[in-house]
Every structure is written in structure tokens, then in C-alpha cells.
Design brief:
7 helices; Aminopeptidase; single chain; alpha+beta; globular; 13 strands; 2 domains; about 30% helix
């Protein structure tokens, strides 16, 4: 626990260990308050808060009132991805910095070097805050939700989408690293650290030849996030991408998922057009800012 003073009052920073419905609802209420006050598309990943295997989180409390929140996770043990928010009445008073200091100490123990902070593009207070703390802009990403599925996009009769098998790992590494431009060693490490019961990988196979892959994170009973979607460079430009995406959406709809979303870098117009052709529409834009963890040492 960490204590800090705020205009002669004390607030405390606590590790979130209680994942009851009551505690989750407190976080959700703060998220809604911040969204309404800022007129932003804030989303702090509440669906990833759970006792086992979920995001790590810290709470800032003033008495019994929740005034700040920060959660983080890492996919590669090198960089931490961060979501955070501060009650409008307690901003510019060191709350986010205190949360960050506490989280950074935990991250350093795990060997994490950098952090990547997600801020809604329409949250001026959030952007001003991270800039003030010295974080640097890295990239922008659209969140897209399925609005109306275009089932007429299913064409390739020879294409099969099947669950990942042990012998597929090398293809997954090569396909992903070549499609996204990451090293094979980083990609191998990333896949090893993102193996979870709720995360499913599908291989796209055309007449026994693997051509691409897509992963789905089942974050809630009604919510699925499509990610790590790629076609091996050897097979790009043949319509496989649209077919793979349409098929995985078809699978999710058959399983009664009502919230299906994915993310795309704002500059990737080709992918943006592909997702729109299936029935996805932009619902939010996020800016990502990066900083070295040691920048937040007390």
C-alpha cells in the first residue's frame, strides 16, 4: 500500500485483489463518469479484470471513494500495456503519477523495460497528462465493432478454418513475423506468453496448405476480440484475408457472440477497407504513448 497527500487529505494506492461484482462495478462507474465528463470513448478493459490470468490493477482511494485506476498486462515481458483513469475532481494532483509509480515498481521486478499507455483520441485531459509526464506518441489505432455481417463474403470453397495443432507453431511464427515485420524470436516469445484458455487460434488451410491465421480472445460471455489476423506474404492478394475474417466472424456469431471487435492501425487503409467490407465500423480511436519504466521511479 502507498499513501500520498492531496491538499491536506490522504489517498491510498492499493493492489486490486478483490474481483467481486461490487468492486468491478465501482471501476465501471468511474469509467462511465470519466467518459461522460470528458465526452470520450474511454475503455479501460474491465472485461480483463479477473482473479486468475487477468490484468494486474491498482486502485487509488480517498476514504471510501475510488478516485483513480490503473491496469496493465504484458504480452512479451518487455513492454507493459496500460489503461488508466482519474476522477475529474482529482486530476492534476498526482494521482496518475502515484498509480504509475506503484505499477512501475511491480513491472521492474518482472524485467519490463517500457510501457505503452492507451489514451482515447478524444480525451484531451488524458493526452495532456501523459505528455506532461514525458511519454512520447507512438501510434494510433481504431477499434472496430461488427455492425452488420456481410455473409456474402464467403467464397473460397477449398479454404478450411481449423483449430491450432501442435505442429502449426512454426508456421504461426513465420506467418506472423513476416506479415507484421517482427522478429521470429519476439513472435515465438509472444505466442508462448499469450497462451490462455480463453484465447483460441485458428489456422486457415487451403487444400492442406496453411495460408494464414487468426486468433480470438473470448473476453466475456458475449464479447470476442479478433487479433493476430494475418495471411502469409506468399499467399496475400488472393482474397484469403476477407475469407478468413468472414469465416471467423461466422463462427463467433454461431456461438451467440453479440460484441465482436478488432483493432487496426489508423494508417492501414487496406486493412480498414477489408474490415469494413465484412461489416465492421469504427467505434473509437486510441492514441498510444510510450515511456521507459525507469522514468516512473519514485
Amino acid at each position: 500500500m502507498m499513501w500520498a497527500t492531496n491538499n491536506m487529505q490522504e489517498y491510498k494506492i492499493l493492489k486490486m485483489n478483490d474481483f467481486s461484482n461490487h468492486q468491478i462495478s465501482r471501476v465501471r462507474m468511474l469509467e462511465q463518469l470519466c467518459k461522460d465528463f470528458d465526452g470520450s470513448s474511454l475503455r479501460v478493459g474491465i472485461e480483463s479484470l479477473k482473479e486468475n490470468g487477468g490484468d494486474k490493477a491498482f486502485l487509488c482511494q480517498m476514504g471510501n471513494q475510488l478516485i483513480g485506476y490503473l491496469s496493465w498486462y504484458t504480452s512479451d515481458e518487455i513492454e507493459a500495456n496500460i489503461n488508466a483513469m482519474v476522477h475529474p475532481d482529482y486530476r492534476r494532483q498526482g494521482v496518475f503519477r502515484s498509480l504509475m509509480n506503484k505499477a512501475a515498481a511491480e513491472m521492474q521486478i518482472q524485467g519490463i523495460k517500457t510501457c505503452r499507455i492507451r489514451i482515447p483520441s478524444n480525451s484531451k485531459p488524458g493526452i495532456d497528462c501523459v505528455k506532461h509526464l514525458g511519454a512520447n506518441f507512438n501510434t494510433s489505432e481504431f477499434t472496430m465493432h461488427l455492425v452488420q455481417f456481410r455473409s456474402d463474403m464467403l467464397h473460397h470453397s477449398g479454404l478450411v478454418l481449423r483449430l491450432e495443432e501442435a505442429q502449426d507453431f512454426d508456421f504461426m511464427v513465420k506467418c506472423s513475423s513476416q506479415a507484421f515485420g517482427d522478429s521470429e524470436s519476439w513472435t515465438r516469445n509472444y505466442f508462448k506468453h499469450t497462451r490462455e484458455p480463453e484465447r483460441v487460434t485458428y489456422l486457415a488451410v487451403d487444400r492442406l496448405t496453411p495460408v494464414g491465421m487468426v486468433r480470438v480472445n473470448h473476453v466475456h460471455t458475449d464479447t470476442a476480440v479478433i487479433h493476430d489476423f494475418c495471411v502469409h506474404p506468399l499467399y496475400q492478394g488472393r482474397g484469403y484475408g476477407r475469407e478468413i475474417l468472414a469465416r471467423v466472424v461466422n463462427i463467433l456469431l454461431a456461438k451467440q457472440y453479440t460484441q465482436i471487435r478488432l483493432g487496426v492501425v489508423t494508417q492501414n487503409k487496406r486493412a480498414l477497407n477489408l474490415y469494413r467490407s465484412i461489416g465492421f465500423e469504427i467505434s473509437a480511436e486510441s492514441h498510444y504513448y510510450v515511456s521507459a519504466i525507469h522514468h516512473f521511479n519514485d
